Amino acid sequence: MPSVKAIKAYAATAKGAPLELFEYTPDPLGDEEVEIAVDYCGICHSDLSVLHNQWGNAVYPLVPGHEVSGRIIAAGDRVKNVQVGDRVGLGWYAASCMACADCLRGDHNFCPSGKDTIIGRHGGFAECVRAHWAWAIPIPDGVDPAKAGPLFCGGITVFNPIVQFGVKPTDRVGVIGVGGLGHLAVQFLNKWGCEVFAFTSSEDKKAELQKLGAHHVVNSRDPAQFKALARSMDFLLVTVNVPLDWGAYIETLAPRGRLHFVGAVLEPLNIGVFPMLVGQRSVSASPLGSPATTARMLDFCARHGVEAVTESFPMSKVNDALAHLESGRARYRIVLENDLQ
User: Fold this and answer.
1) Domains with residue ranges and CATH for the chain
2) Rounded to 5 degrees, what are φ and ψ at 64?
């Protein structure tokens, strides 16, 4: 095993501070850990949320980055399934205990003692990043490593509920908000066989959304279009993180339809019980998926040609990339190419 060396990274020293060059010396590599040389790292809105400590759990100095695509360059003595030289990805989760009831039934993403890649740990805006071997998921042939990073957060976030809630090819499914998460959801659902409705306030996206796989593009500001969809949608996937008129969306749900959240809406949901009760409708939410579901997603992507629409920045321009994301102009995911030397 190679000796421990200092790792170069980009870190924020305080809430909202710009990222600066930073160097740290990690602990010796654990027996079940791998070290991944970062080739590419996507930027997610969650990186911004943590940088600004919107969730109250940020630890500074903070190295963001949880959409890693790279190569294993070191492995502990008890690592399984992967080895040095493998091309892998790493998402929001970096470790789970492997022994609790959740882990033992395959729900590693629910592990109460799991570790997040950028909370209290240094993430992927760096030369290297560490993780438990189970969360270093092999990237299959047919998935472009330069575009793979966003699949490990945005991709699995929207793929996971399709599997968990048994979305069927015969279902009519709406995607609310077609940005970094939603543009991947549209592709997955189209290839899954669903009739796909993209809800957006951006009329200029219509042609692009149809190209991605939306069969219908719904103007989310037009009450008449909502009325026309009353009691017709089997599943609505919420990818936004802002409050909307949830009651209007619930009225579009068919009996036993589900309004499902993957966007981190911070405000309480203003939802009446009666519209839920009369149609036996449901409201739910989910985090990212387990390692097994992530591997299943990657196989699906390779088989069906699903990939993120990305813009690239060198990692040395990370602050410019973050500003571009925060401005809302990104189409649809930003990937940093590692130029740390």
Assistant:
1) 7-152+308-337 (3.90.180.10), 156-285 (3.40.50.720)
2) -75, -175
Where would I find the H helices in the chain?
45-51, 101-104, 145-148, 154-164, 182-192, 206-212, 223-228, 246-250, 273-279, 291-304, 318-326
Contact between residue 281 and residue 253 where contact means Cβ atoms under 8 Å apart: yes
Query: How would residue 5 be classed by pLDDT, with cut points 50, 70 and 90?
Result: confident
As a whole number of angstroms, the distance between CA 245 and CA 19 comes to: 36
Q: Is 278 helix (H, G, I), strand (E, B) or coil?
A: helix
What tokens appear for 196 in the block?
């796909």
Residue with tokens 């590419």: 40
pLDDT tens-digit readout, 173-206: 999 999 999 999 999 999 999 999 999 998 888 9
CA distances for 106 relative to 140, 154, 293, angstroms:
21, 21, 9
Asked if 308 and 155 touch (Cβ cutoff 8 Å), the reply is yes
Q: State the average pLDDT for the chain.
A: 96
User: Which long-range CB contacts under 8 A does 104-109 form with residues at least 24 apart?
Assistant: 106/290, 106/292, 107/290, 108/134, 108/135, 108/290, 108/291, 109/287, 109/288, 109/289, 109/290
Q: What is the pTM of this model?
A: 0.96
**For residue range 301-321, what is the model confidence (pLDDT) as tens digits?**
999 999 999 999 999 999 999
Determine the Cα–Cα distance for residues 83 and 298; give it in Å rounded to an integer: 19
Per-residue pLDDT at 246: 97
* CA-angle at 112, arms to 262 and 175, nearest 5°: 5
Helix (H, G, I), strand (E, B) or coil at 302: helix
In the structure encoding, which two tokens stand for residue 20, read together? 């600066």
CA 284 distance to own-chain centroid: 17
Report the C-alpha gap between 5 and 35 in whole angstroms: 12
- ∠64-94-124 over CA atoms, to 5°? 30
